[in-house]
Amino acid sequence: QIPKTAPAVVFEKINGPIVYKEDHPVTQPQDLKPGEVLVKIECTGVCHTDLHAWKGDWPMPPKQPLVGGHEGAGHIVAIADGTTTTFKVGDAVGIKWLADSCLNCENCRMGAEMTCSLAQCHGYTVDGSFQRYAVSYARHCTPIPDGLPLEVAAPVLCAGVTVWKAIKEANCKPGDWLVVSGAGGGLGHLAVQYATAIGLRVVGIDTGDDKKKLLDQYGADAFIDFKNFRDEGALIKEVKRVCGGEGPHAAVIASAGGAAYNDALEYIRPHGSLVAVGLPPDTDIKANVFWTVFRNVRIIGSYVGNRQDAIEALDFALRGKVKPQIVTEPLKNLEDVYKRMESGGIPGRIVLKC
Ligand code: 8ID
Ligand code: ZN
Fold it and tell me: What is the band of 342 on the pLDDT scale with cuts at 50, 70, 90?
């Protein structure tokens, strides 16, 4: 009952046409290699990373042609012969950015699967979730708990996992101030919720009334519209003011634009952490050595999360502590979603029905 073809969105070349196809070939169960599973994707989030991939924004280009997408939620419909797994056909699973890793190297042994030299990434080095049937790897699929709707799980599989891990890296304790920059976006709006869920005091930075309204629901202490603080040093002053004068204990930068990095090193308090998450192209963090040392600040890169981070991130959603803001649309809308994303016009996440 597995069709020979099914819908998918494919691009042949970076910046080339984004093509919705009804008849994309489906890998048949007998063609799966040991370790692989075939997942019938019900829905998929659209992450800004997918847009960076299509635009070729990063130093290593994606595979081409590419089926993007790495927030896929669906059910296992086939498991390759010779695969050792506890998953069964019919299980609800997520396919996240990290599609596979060796699980044997030092990185994997430490739970740092994202830096495994053999890591594969859905929607980048292998095809991802912008299609109805996706090939994934049993050992890295994420079990989706009973009772969690798949369209709610989808944005957690990248946005949620990533910010949950980033907040852990920030190493704050309850009551500490955390700034989330890019707070109205897919990652940011979840970061605000994970942070408030663990008792942090949160300040969101983004722009526009829609994003402010969204964040007002989550118990953030303040929203700062960065467009109102354009003068040199004005945003730094405002962030410090709302965080009681000294600045936040940490900042998670989840913005897709580079400007958000400029002020963060100055507004965090001494011993504070800047957690770099957003991946704008060609952007440097300029840290003055004297002030970095003198103020004891920490600059931390945080790249997705491991299998355990994914399970923890979904558990917050299952318990209703984190509620992704989602609008669902058909898969064929992907190109239009990219246009809206580029203009910063999407509060929360768009989830596509496959
Ligand atoms: O593992 C990782 N580190 C990881 C995982 C997933 C995604 C990194 N990312 C990266 C993406 O590739 C992207 O660069 O995080 C960034 C944000 O992804 P997203 O949340 O999926 O993007 P979005 O929904 O478009 O939200 C971005 C928000 O940033 C705001 C926009 O208004 C939008 O709400 N923003 C921008 I653009 N410039 C800003 C600024 N100067 C800003 N917010 C505050 N200050
Ligand atoms: Zn992502």
Answer: very high
Residue 38 pLDDT exceeds 90:
yes
Q: Which residue has the tokens 């292998």?
A: 126
In terms of residue numbers, what domain contains 268?
Answer: 159-301
Q: How many domains does the chain have?
A: 2
The yes-or-no verdict on residue 262 having pLDDT over 90 is no
Q: Answer whether residue 308 is part of any domain.
A: no
Query: Cα separation of 122 and 145, whole Å?
Result: 21
- As a whole number of angstroms, the distance between CA 351 and CA 256 comes to 19
Give the pocket of ligand 1 (CB within 6 Å).
Answer: 47-49, 52, 158-159, 162, 181-182, 184-188, 205-207, 226, 254-257, 259-260, 277-280, 302-304, 341, 344, 346
Q: Is residue 49, in this structure, part of any structural domain at all? A: yes
The whole-angstrom separation of Cα 124 and Cα 126 is 6
Closest-CA residue to 127 (of 50, 68, 77, 76)? 68
Residue located via tokens 């299952």: 318
Question: 49 C-alpha to center of ligand 1: Å?
Answer: 9
Average pLDDT over residues 5-10: 98
Q: What is the ipTM of this complex?
A: 0.99
For residue 68, give the ligand nearest its CA: 2
The verdict on residue 314 lying in a domain is: no
Domain shared by 221 and 135, yes or no: no
- All residues at 6 or more sequence positions from 230 whose CB lies less than 8 Å from its CB, including other chains: none
Distance, CA of 296 to CA of 112 (rounded, Å)? 26
Question: Which ligand does the CA of 165 lie closest to?
Answer: 1
pLDDT digits (tens, 9 = 90+) for 279-291: 999 999 999 999 9
In the predicted model, what is the mean pLDDT of residues 138-156? 98
- Same structural domain, 186 and 140: no
pLDDT tens-digit profile of 70-84? 999 999 999 999 999
Residues 172 and 74 reside in one and the same domain: no
